[in-house]
Structure formats: C-alpha cells, structure tokens
Design brief:
about 300 residues; alpha/beta; Rossmann fold; seven-stranded mixed beta sheet; 10 helices; 9 strands; about 45% helix
Amino acid sequence: MSAQSPTLPDPATARLQASQLKAVTRYYKWLDRWVRWHRIVRRYSGFDSMTVHRLLTDPVSGENSSLVLHRLMLEGLSLPSEPRVLDAGCGYGGTAFDLQPKIGGRWLGLTISPIQFARAREESAKRGLSDRIRFALESYDLPRAGPFDLVIGIESLVHSADPPATIANLAASMAPGGHLLLVDDMPVEPFPTEQIDDLKTFKQMWRAPVMPSERGWCAAFEAAGLEIVRSADFSELIWHRSLKELTSLIERDRRRAWMLAWSGLRTIPEANIGGLVVERLAIAGAVQYRLLVGRKHT
C-alpha cells in the first residue's frame, strides 16, 4: 500500500505559507547567530546536542537534557524494524542523530534554514550516516510522496500559517498505520483573559501566527484521517525561573528590541522575549508543553 498522492494547496493558502516561510527563515538565521555567540544561551537551547527544543527532566533518572523528550515521546509506540522517518522542521538534525542509532531506519529532515541545513549535512557526513540520514532545504508544507512510517514535528509546526493544511499535507505522505508525533506549546481552553497580552506577544516574537490549542490540533489530525492515540502533558518536567526574574528579563529585552528596531539584530531580543513570555505563561498554567500522537487509518 502507498501513501495517497500529495496535492497542492489553494492559492490563498500558498501565499500565506510563502509569507510565513520568509519570516521564519529570517528568524532562524538571527537566532542561530545569537546561540553560536552566547555560551549561556547554548546551554539551554540544545545547540550543542544539535537539537533546538526544550530541556526536560526525566521523571525516573532525573537527567535534564534536550534528549529526554525523545525517550518520552516514543513510549508505547510500535514501529517497523526499519522505519521511514520524516522530521518536519528538523533544525540541526539532533533528533535524527539521537534516535536513528536506537530505532534504525532511514530519515529525512526538512528545514527552511540554510544555516541549519548546512550544519546538519556536515554532521551527518562526519558521523558516517549520510546514507541513513538525509536533509532537504524545504518547507514541510510542500507536497511530498513518502510514504513515511513516522513523522515528527518538535516545536516546528507552531510556525505554520495554516495548521490544518500543514497536518493534511504531512498526513498525505504517511503510510497507512503510520504515526505523526507533534510536540509543542499549546494554549489551554478556556484561555485566561488576563494572559491574552502575553499570548499575543509570544505569537509575534516566535513567529507563531496561529498556535492552536490541544483541541485545535486534534481537530486538524482528525480532519486529515489521523486517530489520536496518545496525548501527554510534559509541562511539569520543565524547570522555570521566578516570575520576578522573568519580568525583569522581559523588560530588559524590550529595551534592547526598541534600540535595535531598524536592524535585523532586533530578532535576537525578540526571540528572547518570546521564550521568557512563554515561560511566564507556563507558570500561570495558561500554556502547556504537550505531545500528540496520531495514527493514520489503514
């Protein structure tokens, strides 16, 4: 059996996706520069492990790293012995480099960042994995034939300008019985009115125009023919700073963003503000760091 044929998005959706693609590409260009320069930021970004996602504390071992998520998200998942895997928004390829030696298979990572793409390919060759882990400088919204047994989206699909269209496109590339793993920050419902300004700030600063709730993502999964087989909240596994410290840092970076208003460098304090604000939202219980697993109908 093969995956259904991919279809092109309608013109309005395509224009929206193209505009968002430019914004996010620019965002990651400046973010990469900041992380490379700033060693303290590197410690909390996952940069040195080739990942660009949240550090979690393992509830059993107590280990705190960006790789803990990989173990947690695969719990209870049944995969073929040599799965075909698509990492939609792969960053520097850290998820593939960590998991391919553990679960095998052939991997394809997609990124729209030329910097991430170059570093990921270089690392794949250095590790002798170029025949097992490939990368493409492409958007996850482009039609792709597949089929894939596993599709992963870690803190990447939140950048989608049209989440239902993105999920439908990824689902079209999946093999029957395949799984889609989505990990991202999701606003709670009902959303507290006193946190609305922070939510707007986060979406603006992290180039996340829609940012669906868990229910919104579930609806997109189901519309694309994916059955929700697991939903988990990892929020309690993330360490947070105090509200006083967060507020002070946000005010500092707002001043920096204002001073750099006409420079591409403003993206750096904006990215910092986004991270600090979502941390404040998490402390307030307004945003959860969640995993959703969908299985494609056979």
